[in-house]
Write a structure and sequence with these properties.
By secondary structure, this protein is mainly β. The protein has one domain: Porin. Helix content is about 10%, strand content about 50%. It contains three helices and 13 strands; from the N terminus they run H-E-E-E-E-E-E-H-E-E-E-E-E-E-H-E. The longest helix has 24 residues, at about 1-25. It is globular and about 50 Å long. The termini are far apart.
């Protein structure tokens, strides 16, 4: 029985991933150039420029107490004005296998989010972007969502009953066609978040603040290949500032990305560290993502 549940969990996750890829294959991606600096797409950090396209990913995270946390998402972007202003929607999912003392397996939808961003400063080799994202309380709140909360990186996407407002800033800069760097700063303001006290020692307050910050360094060498290849090292941190027992999760993701601006596929290995709440829960994650742009 347990094997059947686990098999169905994997099938659900991979089916969503495959369906998204099929949708992508129905479109023909046209030539597309960023509005300014050429900055490869990060794994988890919001990019400085807007596009029209779709992105999907899947991540398998090994847990300390045996079992796996499976996280994947689908994202749709619409470029409204010359890659400088755009809107997007994100649909997160999370599953677990052999989770907890009873070896639970589950797969849940998270909190749907809608966002928009605009470039405030655009130079030939740099950009400063401001954005706002809102997470709506749509999670199924099963063991899959609970596991994603425990991992802490994407609390806002899986917090039960919580409405989250996330203003953020992105700075990106490139050094020619080879080197690039971006830095992000997010403020997750969770309202009606008292149910997080089931997972962390928050004090049971209705409003909580989690600050997320990090950066990505990338190198895109001129290789004798028919496609662009970028090597990335990304560091993302999430720090609670209002919990009674504050915690910080840090996530280091080295990896590579192929395909350039129109079609991009990324592979990475995520290494969590930081507070005991994170390191005692998860060991390492394996990430695969795909993204395509539709002409802008």
């Amino acid at each position: 029985m347990k094997r059947s549940i686990i098999r169905n969990l994997y099938i659900q996750s991979l089916s969503i991933f495959t369906m998204a890829l099929i949708c992508l294959s129905l479109f023909v991606a046209k030539g597309a150039n960023a509005a300014g600096a050429q900055i490869p797409y990060s794994f988890f950090l919001e990019g400085p420029y807007s596009i029209t396209g779709m992105k999907t990913n899947v991540e398998f995270i090994n847990l300390d107490d045996d079992g796996w946390l499976i996280m994947n998402s689908l994202r749709i972007d619409v470029n409204v004005y010359e890659n400088l202003f755009g809107l997007y929607a994100k649909f997160p999912f999370s599953g677990v296998t052999d989770f907890g003392v009873n070896g639970e397996s589950d797969y849940d939808f998270g909190n749907l989010s809608l966002g928009g961003k605009a470039v405030m400063l655009n130079l030939d080799n740099a950009a400063l972007t401001g954005g706002l994202e809102v997470f709506f309380p749509t999670t199924d709140d099963g063991f899959g969502a609970f596991g994603a909360q425990r991992y802490f990186r994407d609390v806002a996407a899986f917090a039960d009953d919580a409405l989250t407002i996330n203003p953020y800033l992105v700075f990106g800069i490139s050094g020619g066609d080879i080197f690039a760097f971006q830095a992000n700063l997010d403020f997750n303001i969770l309202t009606d978040a008292n149910r997080l006290d089931r997972v962390f020692d928050t004090g049971g307050d209705d409003t909580e603040l989690i600050v997320k910050y990090g950066g990505t360094v990338s190198v895109t060498p001129d290789l004798p290949l028919p496609f662009s290849t970028s090597f990335l090292v990304e560091l993302l941190l999430a720090s609670s500032t209002s919990f009674d027992d504050n915690i910080t999760g840090a996530y280091l993701t080295p990896g590579f990305r192929v395909g350039g601006q129109i079609f991009s596929a990324g592979v990475g290995v995520e290494i969590p560290f930081g507070s005991d709440e994170v390191t005692d829960f998860a060991n390492v994650g394996f990430l695969l993502d795909f993204m395509v742009r539709f002409g802008s």
